[in-house]
Amino acid sequence: MARFELKLPKMGESVAEATITNWLKEVGDKIEADEAVLEIATDKVDSEVPSEVSGILVEQLFGKDDLVQVGQTIAIIETEGDAPVAKATQEAAAPAEVAEIEKTIEVAQETVAAPQNFSESDKFFSPLVKNIAKEEGISVAELDNLNGSGKDGRVTKEDILKYIDDRKSGAVTPAQKVAQETPKPTEVVQQIAPQVTEQPVQKSQQAVPVSVNGGDEIIEMDRMRKLISGYMIASVQTSAHVQSFIEVDVTNIVKWRDKVKAAFEKREGEKLTFTPIMMEAVAKALKDFPGMNISVNGDYIIKKKNINLGMAAALPNGNLIVPVIKNADQLNLVGMAKAVNDLGNRAKTGKLKPDDTQGGTYTVTNVGTFGSVFGTPIINQPQVGILALGAIRKVPAVIETPEGDFIGIRQKMFLSHSYDHRVVDGALGGSFVKRVAEYLEAFDIDRDF
Predict the structure, then answer these.
(1) Which residues contact 41 (CB under 8 A, 6 or more apart)?
(2) Cβ–Cβ contacts within 10 Å for residue 409, how many?
(3) pLDDT of residue 173
(4) What pLDDT score was predicted for residue 301?
């Protein structure tokens, strides 16, 4: 029988590793070519790893939460013969043995113990942790109050075993008792793999969050929110943020879009929003002011050859992601609209690839989408600037004409430019955002798309 090594694929020039978040296929499962085998997460994007061949999954070489390098073998697929594989061989790697053990626990637990509804918790618990909790009578509420020592604060086997030891010694008080007559699935585990269950337990002090008000709800941040939190704090601590604001008359842009949007969608099959028009102006301004298209590495300034525009996008779960439009200055308006719509749609549906978020040299965020007039965005490191687009509003304005000034209704918006004062002074930061405004206000209402 041929054995195919499923490797962690290359996900972009700057992506070297990923974390396994979920196995979609278990040992013994049949897999079709191009079918997803597992889910992985980089520092910004979650994605799936498909199989290149059809066959039977016989080994899982890594477990959940394991960090894997690009090019490493993560699973073995048997590509000849269609007889199902009952379980991994005795020589299988340790992660495959653990997967078999966890599967056995789940089967045993379904037949001997009353179910607990772990879906009530917002935290992730591995099958092994959940089954230990079930057989020991540990409630979901107790698990929620445990601070795990695993990746992103997840509760590990060692954490829950320590909690059980503390509870038995009287150090903590359990929320509920275990029925004496309930058989223990861990007995099955001990028969199968005593070397796993008899591993020494790492002793660590667990801090339990306390609710001041009995009605308060304590929710652990998900993985992406923790990452975003870390990025934002690091950016504020790294860069000396300063802002410049400018108001822009975009009446011509609004009129032009209203005039051509139906024809644009009919010809190109794409909706025309204001975002690609704004991105086009930003790309032009970056060519005029290359000092904004840089990054900082210690005491060195790196001038970027390419203009790669990051486009901040809100996800359905409320988190934020920044896909990147590569070589944005080389795109016409149609190409920019297609790129904006493609990245935006794939962000909403969770189909972005890791490389889609890499290599940005400057970022644009549209705070006007949520009704904000302007904002003070935080720089996306290691870039040195970020532009916030405010909401477009009808406002009374002074209009200058050869016949004199008069008051009229105009469509206006604010541009908010945050930049790193370590390397960008007010003259450059202010001149750049002014140039963006000039491109927008000089928009040709008679132009073709």
Answers:
(1) 18, 19, 21, 47, 223
(2) 11
(3) 56
(4) 95
| 3 state SS of 378 | coil
Give the position of tokens 């008000």.
213
d(CA 140, CA 117): 8
382: cis peptide before it, omega within 30°? yes
Q: In sequence order, which residues have a C-beta less than 8 Å from that of residue 107 and are 6 or more positions away?
A: none
Q: Minimal CA–CA distance to 204: which of 147, 275, 285?
A: 147
Distance CA 310, CA 356 (A): 10
How far, in Å, CA of 99 to CA of 127, rounded? 9
Residue ranges of the chain whose pLDDT lies below 70 = 12-14, 43-44, 81-124, 126-127, 151-152, 172-214
Q: Is 43 exposed, middle or buried (0-12, 13-18, 19+ CB in 10 A)?
A: middle
Q: Residues with catalytic annotation?
A: 421, 425
pLDDT at 195: 38
> Which two tokens mark 249?
């008359």
Alpha-carbon span 329 to 341, nearest angstrom: 17
